[in-house]
């Protein structure tokens, strides 16, 4: 500070003369103090002027952007050095002045003390982690920062964590947005009384300095802005200016953080109009100020919505008080002229080609608030600051500053008004912006803070016309992308729609404005104003009509469309966001009776808009063919308000319905959509590409369905309930193009549909009718019933997770509707209908989530196929639901066969919609049903079971909903105009069912079979196809049962339509109706139609009974059940009928028909009495026969294929059972690689590639498929049982010094310091880290077969998950991952019996033999294929691990290294198998590892290579173990380093060296001999270690006790004697000296008892015995005995032959009894101790450390994780990386060692390896297990591949939350973590996880 001050003083010397001299010589602080004093005087004018002059100088705006002009500036700038220095200088001055001479930090602290921190108001930007609590929120947008959330109490609340998309601010403390109970401790409202009043002088300087400072900032902004040339904003320039201003804006931001006191000063400054006027007017002598003012005026020019030239022409008058009525006319006019205006000014400089100026001005005349049209006028700093913020496209810093001020209430109001004033300008800037996404986010970041507050929104609506501004701005925005609609009448259409291909819609640019609109409509007070204001409603309907009919699809009939447009998604999103969501917002306020008026308003203007639309598209009565739009928002507004009116407001439906003609028009387009859906699913639109399927799916998809298909179906239901039923039904079949199919004739001609589509279109039409008649979503169901039905439908399709259910159930899109997902009703309904299935694990390793599955009673009573069909996006889901239903019925024994969809009783209809049921009782439908039943019975083509199912469903619906009593309807037949009366007498289904129809006249092609039968049928027929009744005179029957005849649906419909029109409209209207019937006339090429008369003589009932026979395949199968059991008629609800197939359905219907009328009952009985004639067999034509043969052949081929596949599958299965049980050791049968009979001398192998069996030979060796991998699992063992915890605070750290790997490392380096290198490398094993583990799947193959297999893989272009170049492949049989082949050594596998018989040779003989055998040099066998393979596999093994894990020698490349590496491989595999068995051998038997073990083969390979290195006989440790030497030879030369004393050797390593040095196969005798000898050494080591652990007193006591017993007979087998001897030998050196310092550490607190010593000795020796027993098991194939833990030692000892067989077990077992000394014990011990003595004379400390070997390692574990994921997340997601000290974008933590790493972070990359990959190599030798903090997922790295493993943290519903998208609390799933740990320990990641990919070192 002082330096800067001095520089400043320096800079002031050539100062201007008008400054008083007193202020010059002092530094800044003094100046500031002086000015503060001057200003504190009562008369402070002089002080004020002085300050102004100083600020004028310091804050001159010319500095940063203009070149420094004038000496003073240059000096000041020079003082600071560099271009940015001047601003820094200015900031320093400001800070100094604000503080009034004191220190700035103290000043900040002082101001903070006066902060009444009632609001948090912390502002954050995108990607910040925040919380939302729905229980505490009043507004759905409420959010809390992490700190406030954790400080508050939200236990049991419905909250979630989320990553902010657009940024936000913390609402803690704001009771308008959230309930006070949720405030945190800091913001629980403080009463303002305990905050002291701010002293006047504290902030006095701020009030003077800040206006100048802000003005200076504004000048910079004015200076920096240049109008972009040629419509391309120069973003670079803008960013440059912003970068320069960064420090100034940050300074302001810091001021806002000082708390309430400073904020109120800033508010005063920002809103004070006088200040603004004085400073910015641009008058005055300063040229610079003038220039900036001019720039400002230029920038303002285009800020209004109108353009200057418009103004000149029209001269807009100031709005008067009476404009409201004017407005309505204005808008109506605007809507009328909409289409006729030619868009003339497309070259607007604004880029928005609107639809003509006339319209724009029309609109403007109606807008109440003129300011939106005019150029903006600014009256305060705040207004101009916001203006520049918008101009500069919302720079983040400015946004944050403006938002940080919001806790100040006065500011909040002023800012909100300013924001609204600039709303139109924001829209214009947004449209032009190139970064509209970023800008949208920033706009919403601001607006959501302002408009979520109801009080504020209401105030602004009243004072600033917020609603008018928003609606007008939206309208203007959409105007820029309108095009002419091509719907219906392409040439003459006057309708315009938005163009979905425009960027505005494609990029969702309208989103911020629409989201604001939805936000303010959620406030009741605002929504009411909107619904009351007719002018606004008219404008809004005008806006909605822009979306009516957008994205029109035209069916491609010839070739496939070239370019599939993907605009459809933009269209759906636009309708949902811009139309539907505001609609739901408005609907949520129309819940009660008092709001009827609002509904009437909306409905009225909606109908007007619809009428205008029909006129504009020139719609008469027929929709244009082959086109469909899915977007009818006006229809949907109308439908939803109708539904609300009836459901909640008790409005009379008819009072809001239009006339019949309008209803007929209204139903056309929604019906067209339903028909198109069926067409799309019938593949009639395939030439339009996939996108049309996408539209059909989106239309019914869960997020859209309740704003799209549901309102459409409801509207059709309303129309159906009010229109003539015959007309409606015939319209449906005509729309679905299946009219021609509905004929009794067996052949027909369809002029509008190809034959292959007929069946699915007929199914579509019938299914639609069923849905229309069964669905009750808007016809009387309560909200909870709806929720339940939706949930049942989703659960029936598939079991669902909780989150997918939330997602799939269409919620009411408006957040305030009450049914929030996750709300109470949701959970209670869920628990009522579903059972929770906890997540389970399959042995394959695939992870299940927690699922909900339907309860049995739901399947039984609530499964509703209709709802399922309505809600399925994919057709396969319907099938899935039926399959699950079938499975349930089979399982519960309710029905064994293939059931049909069950018929479900419906909720009762609301009285207003009773008319809907008339559809079921109209003759047209009955004729259709009769025809279809007849056709199905006669086996006509193109009918399916589905058709029958729907027909029966409709009949049943009709019976359920018939009029209560059956009246004699025959009398009611009216007049001759009903041309099909002769079919049925009345319209009641119950009576029509029994009506017999005798003859039907049909029109058939001349080729049809019917023609030949009846040549006399030449009666005339109507030209349109509807014929008059023709009766044959000889048939004398009652009139109504006369010959029925051709019935033409189309003609019927035309006639009806005409009637209605005549009734309802003037003649004038009829003139315009064009003739539309020509579409249906047959094309010329068709064969001639003739008329034929068919004899039918059936009724619906008789058809049903015959159907029953046909379905059951038996004659007379139907027998009326009531004849046996009259009860049935009294209680008809019989469970036996509720589930079943078609037969059951027919029985159920007949029963219902009989119940409804006695006549029906009688007729059914009559029909059943007549023996039914057999159904005539079908004649088969030659062509049909051909196809049948083809079918049959196909069927046979298919069966053959199935058989083959099944056979293969069973082979594979049996194989999987034996080979793949990774996790279930108990129940498997060991897989015999070899045959079991021991007398067979050679093992036989099967090659899984060529399938031949045979022995492995020298020239054609067989090999085992193996996977070699480097492993550091062993190195992770620690000596304590409790696993380490993952650190979750700074204090907890994990140090790796106590791991097995570290301990072994230390030991080796200690040995290498003092002893000869080559000898050190034989004294230990390596491979604790980076050891090579070999595992096999147990399959064998010829090595030459394998090579050709690899070749074929290399040429295979399919992308595999592995790299063939690295030798990786999958086993050809079981597909297990592998990377090498281990050759099988010729000869028997289980060594021959001869070798195993115990011989009686003495141990001395055996020792000699061993030595001789080892002495023989091992020559590498001749160059056979086998030996080559052995060499290459050895190379593979070496290359598996990194060099640093192989080379420990001081001389690189020394053979000792290879030697050490080879026997360590054997050690690693044995140790790992021991760990897989649980760390001990108590369980015995051949374990899972055993049956797939390749240790035997591995041993052969290793032994072969190790025998190449002979150990010089004098160095061979075997001699030291078995022979006494002269003392002088032990002393050795002094010069060179001594060899490692034998007591420091690792005994297990010695064992492996000895055995691998022997020629293979090995004699059992020799093996036992080696073990016995080594055990003596091991025991001595145990005694020595024990002696070091004892205290001095213990030692002398033991020494004494043992000495007494030394002369006993078996002294050599008594541990006391031996111990005393070891102690006396070792005490000759300095080993026990210098105890003083270390004593406490070594000594165990209690003195040693004989028992504890025995236990110590056994524990010391056990690891060796375990490894040795395993080795024996593998080499000689002997089974391991099982035992209790406490007897493990003795059992293993006797199994290894250490214990004499006659050993009695009565007295307690003593480990020493296993000793069998090859030479006198005391002599050899003396010899061994002597080596140590000579070493400890020099290095006593190290000598002692080396003696104590820690051999009791516990099993390895992954780190223990905390219960709740949040603890991990909160600590790590903000933690900085230790390498690059930044907070990583993707932090991860290693679960093995707890290291924190940057995933994919380029910051921590080393030699092209990213940090995770590098760490996986260092920590796990290529295997890494990382928890990704931001995703809660675990990722596995294995070598060059990686896979996502899944998550071990699940939410309360047992689900993962990948990427924390839902943000619900997550808890550890211990079972999953166990599985992960198991896979790590057993090295099975490669086999169990399937989805691997290469990581290219980029993780």
Characteristics:
28 strands, disordered N terminus, 1899 residues, alpha+beta, three-stranded antiparallel sheet
Structure description:
Helix content is 49%, strand content 6%. A hairpin with a 6-residue loop joins strand 14 (1245-1246) and strand 15. It has 1899 residues and is of the alpha+beta class. The N terminus is likely disordered. The relative contact order is 0.04.
For the report, how would you describe the main beta sheet? 6 strands, antiparallel
Calculate the mean pLDDT score and round it.
79
Overall geometric form: flat
Query: Beta-sheet strand percentage?
Result: 5-15%
Question: How would you classify the helix and strand content by structural class?
Answer: alpha+beta
The residue fraction in helices comes out at: 40-55%
Rg calculated over all Cα atoms: 46 Å
End-to-end separation in angstroms reads 46 Å
Helix run count: 76
The order of strands across the largest sheet is 22-21-23-24-25-28
Secondary structure tally: strands: 28
Spans of at least 5 consecutive residues whose pLDDT stays below 50 are 1-26, 61-83, 307-369, 814-819, 965-981, 1012-1046, 1065-1086, 1174-1180, 1219-1240, 1389-1396, 1635-1645
């Amino acid at each position: 500070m002082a330096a800067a001050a001095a520089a400043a003083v320096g800079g002031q010397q050539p100062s201007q003369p008008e400054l008083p001299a007193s202020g010059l010589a002092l530094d800044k602080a003094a100046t500031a103090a002086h000015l503060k004093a001057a200003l504190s005087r009562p008369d402070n004018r002089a002080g004020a002027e002085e300050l102004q002059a100083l600020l004028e100088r310091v804050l001159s705006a010319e500095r940063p952007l203009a070149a420094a002009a004038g000496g003073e500036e240059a000096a000041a700038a020079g003082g600071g050095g560099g271009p940015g220095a001047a601003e820094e200088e200015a900031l320093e001055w400001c800070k100094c002045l604000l503080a009034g001479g004191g220190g700035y930090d103290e000043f900040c602290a002082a101001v903070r003390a006066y902060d009444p921190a009632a609001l948090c108001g912390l502002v954050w930007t995108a990607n910040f982690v925040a919380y939302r609590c729905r229980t505490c929120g009043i507004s759905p947008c409420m959010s809390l920062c992490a700190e406030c959330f954790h400080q508050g109490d939200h236990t049991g609340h419905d909250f979630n964590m989320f990553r902010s998309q657009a940024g936000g601010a913390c609402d803690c403390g704001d009771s308008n947005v959230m309930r006070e109970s949720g405030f945190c401790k800091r913001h629980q409202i403080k009463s303002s009384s305990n905050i002291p009043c701010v002293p006047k002088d504290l902030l006095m300087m701020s009030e003077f300095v800040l206006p100048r400072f802000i003005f200076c900032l504004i000048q910079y902004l004015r200076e920096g802005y240049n109008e972009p040339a040629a419509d391309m904003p120069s973003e670079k320039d803008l960013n440059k200016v912003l970068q320069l201003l960064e420090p100034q804006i940050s300074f302001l931001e810091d001021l806002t953080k000082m708390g309430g006191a400073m904020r109120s000063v800033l508010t005063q400054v920002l809103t004070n109009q006088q200040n603004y006027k004085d400073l910015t007017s641009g008058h005055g002598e300063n040229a610079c100020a003038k220039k900036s003012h001019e720039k400002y005026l230029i920038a303002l020019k285009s800020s209004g919505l109108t353009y200057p030239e418009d103004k000149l022409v029209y001269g807009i008058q100031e709005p008067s008080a009476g404009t409201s009525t004017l407005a309505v006319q204005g808008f109506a006019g605007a809507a009328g002229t909409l289409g006729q205006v030619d868009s003339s000014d497309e070259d607007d400089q604004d880029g928005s080609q609107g639809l003509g100026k006339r319209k724009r001005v029309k609109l403007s005349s109606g807008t109440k608030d003129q300011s939106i049209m005019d150029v903006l006028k600014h009256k305060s700093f705040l207004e101009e600051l916001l203006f520049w913020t918008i101009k500069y496209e919302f720079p983040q810093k400015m946004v944050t500053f403006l938002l940080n001020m919001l806790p100040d209430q006065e500011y909040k109001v002023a800012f909100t008004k300013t924001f609204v004033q600039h709303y139109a300008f924001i829209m214009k800037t947004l449209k032009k912006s190139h970064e509209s996404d970023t800008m949208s986010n920033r706009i919403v970041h601001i607006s959501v803070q302002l408009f979520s507050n109801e009080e504020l929104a209401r105030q602004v609506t009243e004072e600033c016309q917020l609603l008018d501004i928003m609606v007008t701005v939206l309208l203007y925005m959409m105007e820029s992308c309108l095009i002419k609609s091509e719907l219906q009448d392409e040439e003459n259409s006057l309708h315009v729609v938005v163009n979905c291909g425009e960027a505005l819609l494609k990029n969702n640019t309208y989103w911020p404005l629409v989201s604001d609109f939805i936000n303010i409509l959620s406030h009741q007070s605002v929504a009411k104003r909107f619904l009351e204001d007719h002018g606004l409603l008219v404008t809004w309907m005008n806006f909605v009509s822009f979306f009516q009919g957008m994205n029109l699809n035209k069916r491609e009939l010839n070739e496939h469309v070239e370019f599939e447009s993907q605009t459809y998604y933009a269209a759906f999103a636009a309708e949902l966001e811009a139309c539907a969501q505001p609609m739901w917002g408005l609907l949520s306020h129309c819940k009660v009776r008092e709001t009827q008026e609002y509904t009437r308003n909306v409905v009225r203007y909606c109908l007007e808009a619809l009428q205008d639309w029909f006129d504009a598209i020139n719609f008469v009565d027929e929709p244009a063919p082959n086109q469909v739009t899915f977007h009818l928002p006006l229809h949907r507004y109308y439908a939803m308000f109708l539904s609300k009116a009836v459901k909640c407001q008790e409005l009379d439906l008819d009072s809001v319905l239009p006339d019949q003609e309008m209803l007929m028009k209204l139903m056309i387009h929604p019906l067209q959509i339903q028909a198109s859906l069926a067409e799309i699913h019938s593949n009639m639109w395939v030439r339009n590409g996939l996108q049309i399927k996408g539209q059909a799916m989106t239309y019914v998809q869960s997020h859209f369905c309740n704003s799209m298909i549901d309102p459409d179906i409801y509207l059709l239901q309303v129309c159906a309930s009010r229109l003539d039923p015959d007309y409606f039904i015939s319209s449906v079949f005509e729309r679905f193009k299946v009219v021609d199919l509905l004929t009794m004739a067996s052949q027909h001609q369809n002029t509008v549909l190809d034959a292959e589509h007929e069946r699915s279109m007929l199914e579509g039409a019938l299914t639609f009718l069923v849905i229309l008649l069964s669905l009750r979503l808007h016809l009387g169901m309560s909200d909870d019933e709806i929720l339940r039905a939706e949930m049942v439908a989703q659960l029936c399709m598939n079991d669902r997770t909780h989150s997918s259910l939330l997602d799939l159930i269409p919620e009411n899109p408006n957040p305030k509707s009450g049914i929030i997902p996750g709300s109470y009703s949701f959970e209670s309904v869920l628990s009522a209908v579903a059972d929770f299935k906890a997540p389970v694990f399959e042995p394959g390793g695939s992870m299940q989530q927690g699922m909900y599955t339907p309860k049995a009673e739901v399947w039984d009573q609530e499964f509703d196929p209709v709802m399922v069909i309505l809600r399925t996006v994919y057709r396969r889901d319907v099938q899935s639901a039926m399959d699950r239903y079938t499975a349930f019925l089979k399982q519960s024994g309710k029905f064994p066969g293939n059931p049909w969809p069950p018929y479900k009783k419906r909720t009762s209809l609301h009285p207003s919609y009773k008319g809907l049921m008339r559809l079921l009782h109209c003759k047209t439908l009955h004729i259709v049903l009769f025809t279809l039943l007849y056709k199905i019975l006669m086996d006509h083509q193109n009918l399916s079971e589905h058709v029958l199912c729907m027909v029966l469903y409709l009949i049943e619906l009709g019976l359920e909903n018939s009029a209560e009593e059956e009246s004699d309807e025959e009398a009611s037949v009216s007049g001759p105009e009903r041309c099909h009366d002769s079919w049925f007498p009345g319209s009641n289904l119950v009576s029509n069912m029994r009506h017999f129809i005798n003859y039907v006249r049909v029109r058939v092609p001349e080729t049809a079979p019917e023609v030949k039968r009846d040549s006399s049928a030449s009666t005339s027929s109507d030209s349109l196809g509807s014929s008059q009744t023709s009766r044959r005179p000889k048939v004398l029957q009652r009139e109504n049962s006369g010959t029925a005849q051709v019935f033409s649906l189309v003609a019927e419909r035309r006639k009806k339509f005409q009637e209605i029109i005549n009734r309802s409209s003037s003649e004038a209207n009829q003139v315009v109706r064009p003739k539309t019937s020509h579409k249906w006339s047959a094309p010329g090429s068709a064969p001639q139609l003739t008329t034929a008369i068919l004899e039918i003589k059936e009724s619906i009932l008789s058809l049903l009974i015959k159907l029953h026979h046909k379905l059951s395949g038996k004659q007379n199968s139907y027998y009326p059940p009531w004849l046996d059991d009259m009860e049935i008629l009294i209680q008809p609800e019989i469970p036996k009928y509720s589930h079943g197939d078609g037969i059951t359905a027919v029985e159920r219907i007949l029963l219902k028909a009989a119940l409804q009328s006695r006549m029906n009952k009688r007729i059914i009985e009559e029909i059943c009495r007549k023996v039914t004639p057999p159904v005539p067999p079908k004649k088969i034509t030659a062509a049909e026969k051909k196809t049948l043969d083809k079918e049959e052949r196909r069927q046979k081929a298919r069966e053959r294929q199935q058989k083959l596949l099944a056979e293969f599958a069973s082979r594979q299965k049996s194989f999987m059972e034996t080979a793949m049980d990774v996790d279930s050791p108990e129940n498997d049968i060991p897989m015999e690689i070899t045959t079991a009979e021991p007398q067979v001398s050679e093992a036989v192998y099967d090659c899984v590639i060529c399938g031949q069996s045979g022995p492995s030979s020298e020239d054609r060796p067989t090999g085992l498929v193996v996977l070699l991998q480097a492993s550091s699992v062993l190195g992770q063992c620690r000596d304590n049982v409790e696993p380490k915890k993952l650190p979750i605070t700074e204090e907890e750290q994990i140090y790796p010094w106590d791991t097995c790997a570290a301990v072994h490392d230390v030991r080796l380096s200690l040995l290498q310091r003092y002893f000869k290198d080559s000898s050190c490398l034989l004294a230990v094993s390596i491979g604790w880290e980076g050891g090579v583990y070999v595992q096999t799947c147990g399959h064998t193959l010829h090595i030459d077969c394998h090579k050709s297999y690899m070749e074929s893989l290399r040429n295979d272009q399919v992308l595999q998950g592995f790299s063939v170049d690295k030798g990786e492949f999958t086993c050809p049989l079981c597909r297990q991952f592998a990377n090498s082949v281990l050759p099988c050594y010729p000869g028997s596998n289980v060594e021959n019996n001869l070798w195993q018989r115990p011989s009686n040779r003495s141990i001395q003989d055996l020792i000699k033999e061993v030595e001789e055998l080892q002495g023989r040099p091992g020559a590498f066998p001749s160059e056979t294929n086998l030996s080559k393979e052995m060499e290459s596999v050895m190379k593979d093994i070496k290359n598996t691990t990194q060099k640093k894990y192989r080379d420990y020698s001081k001389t690189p490349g020394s053979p000792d290294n290879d030697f050490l590496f080879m026997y360590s491989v054997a050690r690693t595999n044995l140790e790992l198998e021991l760990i897989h068995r649980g760390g001990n051998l108590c369980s015995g038997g051949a374990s899972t590892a055993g049956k797939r073990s390749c240790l035997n083969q591995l041993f052969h390979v290793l032994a072969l290579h190790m025998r190449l290195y002979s150990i010089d006989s004098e160095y061979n440790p075997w001699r030291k173990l078995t022979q006494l030497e002269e003392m002088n030879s032990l002393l050795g030369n002094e010069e060179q380093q001594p060899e490692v004393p034998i007591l420091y050797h690792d005994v297990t390593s010695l064992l492996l060296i000895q055995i691998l040095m022997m020629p293979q196969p090995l004699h059992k005798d020799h093996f036992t001999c080696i073990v016995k000898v080594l055990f003596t050494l091991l025991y001595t080591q145990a005694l020595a270690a024990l002696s070091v652990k004892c205290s001095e007193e213990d030692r002398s006591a033991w020494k004494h006790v043992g000495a007494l017993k030394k002369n006993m007979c078996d002294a050599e087998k008594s541990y006391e004697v031996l111990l005393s001897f070891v102690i006396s030998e070792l005490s000759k050196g300095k080993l026990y000296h210098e105890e003083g310092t270390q004593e406490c550490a070594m000594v165990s607190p209690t003195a040693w008892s004989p028992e504890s010593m025995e236990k110590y000795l056994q524990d010391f020796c056990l690891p060796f015995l375990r490894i040795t027993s395993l080795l024996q098991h593998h080499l000689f194939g002997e089974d391991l005995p099982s035992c209790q833990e406490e007897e493990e030692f003795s059992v293993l000892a006797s199994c290894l032959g250490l214990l004499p067989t006659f050993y009695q077990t009565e007295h307690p077992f003593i480990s020493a009894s296993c000793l069998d000394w090859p030479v006198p014990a005391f002599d050899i011990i003396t010899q061994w101790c002597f080596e140590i003595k000579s070493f400890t004379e020099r290095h006593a400390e190290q000598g002692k450390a080396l003696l104590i070997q820690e051999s009791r390692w516990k099993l390895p574990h992954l780190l223990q994780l905390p219960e709740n994921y949040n603890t991990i997340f909160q600590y790590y997601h903000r933690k900085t990386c230790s390498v690059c000290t930044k907070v990583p974008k993707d932090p991860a933590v290693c679960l093995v060692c707890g290291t924190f790493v940057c995933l994919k972070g380029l910051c921590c990359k080393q030699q092209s390896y990213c940090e995770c990959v590098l760490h996986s190599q260092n920590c796990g030798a290529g295997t890494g297990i990382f928890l990704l903090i931001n995703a809660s997922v675990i990722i596995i790295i294995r070598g060059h591949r990686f896979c996502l493993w899944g998550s071990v943290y699940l939410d309360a519903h047992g689900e993962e939350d990948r990427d924390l998208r839902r943000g619900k609390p997550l808890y550890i799933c211990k079972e999953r973590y166990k599985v992960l740990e198991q896979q790590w320990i057993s090295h099975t990641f490669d086999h169990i996880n399937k989805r691997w990919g290469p990581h290219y070192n980029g993780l």
